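re the bet — no i am not wrong, look at it urself. input seq straight from the record:
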Amino acid sequence: MQSFLKILRWSVGILFIFSGLIKANDPLGLSYKMQEFFDVWGISFLSDYTLVLSIIMNVLEIVAGIALIIQFPYKQTLWSLLALIIFFSFLTGYALLSGKIKTCGCFGDCIPLTPKTSFIKDILLFIAIVILLFNKKKVKTKMHPALGVFILIIATAGVGYGQNYVLNHLPIIDCLPYKTGNDIIEKMKTPVGAVPDSISIQMEFIKDGKSFLFDANHFPENFDSTYVYKSRKEVVVQKGNGLQAAIVDFNLVTLSKYDSTAEIFAIKTPYVLVLAGKIDSNIPWLDILNKLHNKYKLVYIVTADKDGAINLLPKETILIGDNTMIKTAARVWPTIFVMNGATIMQKQSYLDYLKN
């Protein structure tokens, strides 16, 4: 029994540490996933706090996993892990049953899991933690309290420092489709064997105080002006297999609203895309752009902040991009992309670029 409990304890601890480390590699990714949940639940006002919540969540996962392995403090750690796994099970269960969240972000973007797989994983972890709780008296803690506290303090500081580092210098392991070496055009291609969702557009009309739903091919024979249009929505008639292009929203539009994506990718010489969702006046733009212009002939500012770019960078070539795309491609604003056609040859945060 002791051997079984030891294997179970180590397995749970390592899984929590592994999960936390993957998300700590990209805390902004987890914060964006939290924002997705908050938007679905109608509590978007909490979105301003998601990065702090993300950092705290990652620290808790990793430190709790370490505490379980060193068995200090054992009982309190088990109860903490039980609370965490109940919370995670609620999230993955909601994603599975509602169908409104495609991935829960349990292992970040490095290991995308379906809601079903994530939920099963959480249920198994819940069972394992409950077994450990019921048998907690059979485990004798050998860790000296002072050493245990020291290890947990070091772990907390280390995880906190690591997350601060990647927030300024990009994730250490880039699991996003915009990593160095990727061809954006190739990543925009639909995978072989992909089956999209079958969608029906349903329109809601009101007549005599009653609500009616019709699709475009099934209007009633007596349809007339007495039917008052209310709304329309997309209804998934049949689910696809979930396969889709890794990049689905990459467009570069000029200030005159011309889509220049294809022309940009057709450039034969190395050029630079500087991605920043918002143009922050506190960023040393002059230093960054002077250094870039001294080396490259073509430098483009890609942003969702049209007014900010025009006001702060009036002499630069500005391209407008979708904010979600920019958040995915560039975890630090601004991030420098050195491009060769559609291929990302180099990717750096502005801080690292200025240092080199």
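see?? The two ends are 56 Å apart (CA to CA). told u. also The CA atoms of residues 25 and 173 lie 7 Å apart. so pay up
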